[in-house]
């Protein structure tokens, strides 16, 4: 609102200059006219850049299909270019994308589309080898200033906390869940039935612990 107010203030000053300028020589009027036009352009640019925002971002995966949804507000009426970047979350956990993505092997997907104000969806395919990998999805406006992200947890059996690794942290989390001390999301529950009997209980905790201790070769 602060920026919009400044824009309005420039407009009001512009009207005052125009009224006064009718008594001035033509060259002076042209100078004031250019000044007014510049002020109006600057005001409109600063308003539109400051107001663009992404909200309600979600990302989900069904086998090799990823769906990303988000709401755009404050974009120009013709829409704005939005860049979608997906990286393996195992290596990437920052709130903004890394700057050297052309040198990174963990870029899963990148695309650009014109998005309008309101609800938007991206749907795309990832390779079969990435369908269980934890992912971080970034969206960014072309001014570089507006960025949002959402995570997709790993789906690997035994990776209960979805961080792409199977270790004691997963055993602990699963134990807490079985004891009723905490809840798990649907994809975490899907990763928890390590003895594949259709139930999540202490038998799964035990098998997962045996696996990470190296006492059984696979889950
Ligand atoms: Ca894990
Ligand atoms: Ca089970």
Report the major sheet: 4 strands, antiparallel
Give the terminus-to-terminus CA distance: 56 Å
CATH class of the largest domain: Mainly Beta
Within the largest sheet, what's the order of strands?
4-3-6-7
Number of DSSP strand runs: 7
Query: Structural class of the helices, strands and pairings?
Result: alpha+beta
| Bound compounds | calcium ion
- The name of the CATH superfamily of the largest domain reads Interleukin-17 receptor A/B, fibronectin-III-like domain 2
The helix count comes to: 5
Oligomer: single chain
Shape, principal axes of CA atoms: elongated
| Gyration radius, rounded | 27 Å
Q: What is the CATH fold-level name of the largest domain?
A: Immunoglobulin-like
Q: Give the overall pLDDT as a whole number.
A: 80
Whole-number tally of structural domains: 3
Order of helices and strands: HHEEEEEEEHHH
Task: Describe it.
The N and C termini lie far apart (56 Å). The protein folds into three domains: 2-51; 53-152, Interleukin-17 receptor A/B, fibronectin-III-like domain 2 (Immunoglobulin-like), CATH 2.60.40.2150; 155-219, Dockerin domain (Type 1 dockerin domain, Orthogonal Bundle). The strands form two sheets. It has a four-stranded antiparallel sheet, with no helix packed on it. Strands 1-2-5 form a three-stranded antiparallel sheet, with no helix packed on it. It has five helices and seven strands. The protein is elongated. It is α+β, with helices and mostly antiparallel strands. The chain has helices spanning 2-21, 26-51, 168-178, 186-190, 202-212; strands at 53-62, 65-73, 80-88, 107-115, 118-125, 135-141, 147-152. Strand 6 and strand 7 (147-152) form a beta hairpin. Helix 1 packs antiparallel against helix 2 and helix 3 (168-178) runs antiparallel to helix 5 (202-212). The structure holds calcium ion (2 copies). Residues 193, 195, 197, 199-200, 203-204 line the site of one calcium ion.
